[in-house]
Each structure stands twice: as structure tokens, then as C-alpha cells.
Amino acid sequence: MHPLCAALIDGLSLTGDVPGDAVALLTAHGRAETAAHCANVADEASRLAARFGANGRQAEIAGWLHDISAVIPAAQRLDYARQWRLEILPEEAAAPMLLHQRQSAVLAAKVFGVTDPAILSAIGCHTTLKAAPSALDKIVFLADKIAWDGAGEPPYQDALLAAVEASLDEACWCYLDYLWSRRAALFAVHPWFVAAYHELSDHLERRITP
Ligand SMILES: [Fe+2]
Ligand SMILES: [Fe+2]
Fold this sequence. Notes:
The protein has 12 helices and no strands. With about 210 residues, the protein is mainly α. The chain has one domain: Hypothetical protein af1432, CATH 1.10.3210.10. α2 packs antiparallel against α3 (about 30-50), α10 (about 155-165) packs antiparallel against α11 (about 170-180) and α11 (about 170-180) crosses α12 (about 190-205). It is globular, with a radius of gyration of 17 Å. Bound molecules: fe (ii) ion (2 copies).
């Protein structure tokens, strides 16, 4: 195990039970609120998987681990990425929090022993989505937005809940188009998000918001 990963679990006895281990690790790093959010995302992802015929176990595990990299101190995200030899996009260098999706996938693999590429993919693009996403990618992306962990009610919530009744793609479009409309206010516009948005606009034959 990479020394940085070993240091993160130092003093913990992980059991192999993903929910219990995720809660233990996050709590040990003072991130109990993230553990609660992950529980909500796991529940919502399971519900969406049942609704759309995806694998509920994969959705649940991805939900539990999608934000597990919250254990990395914010000021050290770039340093961890360099030491793990992750490719760092310019947008991620500008807004290192954008690295957290792929850093969660690294920890899911190296600390939790997840080998399923479908689960690792869904964790690794849960913030931005990406081009040619799988159903599981879309489910975890949407579950993270529906199980919002910020203050108050997000402005897209009613529209998103209505869209998810129609299809995963309609729901993804709802959120991506909302984010695109306020891209000027973002610290950085991640190219995976841009690719997902343009691809879905073509697929659904929707106009891109100017
Ligand atoms: Fe996240
Ligand atoms: Fe999240």
C-alpha cells in the first residue's frame, strides 16, 4: 500500500464491511458529516439502481465511497495527486477540490480493495460526469446531487427530481445544463463536464445554453 494510504488508516482496524469501514475512516478524520452524506448517496444510488435496472450493490458501494477522499486535507490534495502520479489537469490545478472524485477512486481501490472498474469509474466521475458515461456513472452522479450536502435547498432540486422520473439522461441534462448556465461563477470548468454536457446535448438534441 502507498505510504500515504497507509498513513490515512493508521490506528484503524478495517473489517472489510464497506459502510462500516467508510464511517470509521471518515469519522477518524473528523468528517462525520461526510459519512452521513455518503450514507444518503448510497441509499439514493440504490434506489435509482432499482428504478433503472442497474446493479444495486455496485451503486451502494460507489455511493459509500464516492467522497472517501474527504480524509485528505484540502491543502494537500495536489501533493497527494503528485505523489500518486495522477495526471493533473490545468482545471484541477486551479481548483484542487476537483481532484477529489479521482482521489476517492484511488482510495476505494487501494484502501478498500475495490477492483470492479464499473464502481471505480462511477466514483471517479461523480462530480463532473464524463463522456460516454455508463448507467452506474449517471446514477452515482445524480445520487450525489439529489442527496445534496450543502446548506438549504439547491436551486435545481425540484426540476432534477421531476427529470429523474423521466430518465437518467433527462436528469443528467437537468443538472449539467444548470451547471453550464453558471459556469462563469465556477473556479474552474472541468473538461469532463464540458464533454458530458456537449455529448448529452447532441444525444437529446437540446440546445446548449449560451
Ligand atoms: Fe464529491
Ligand atoms: Fe458527495
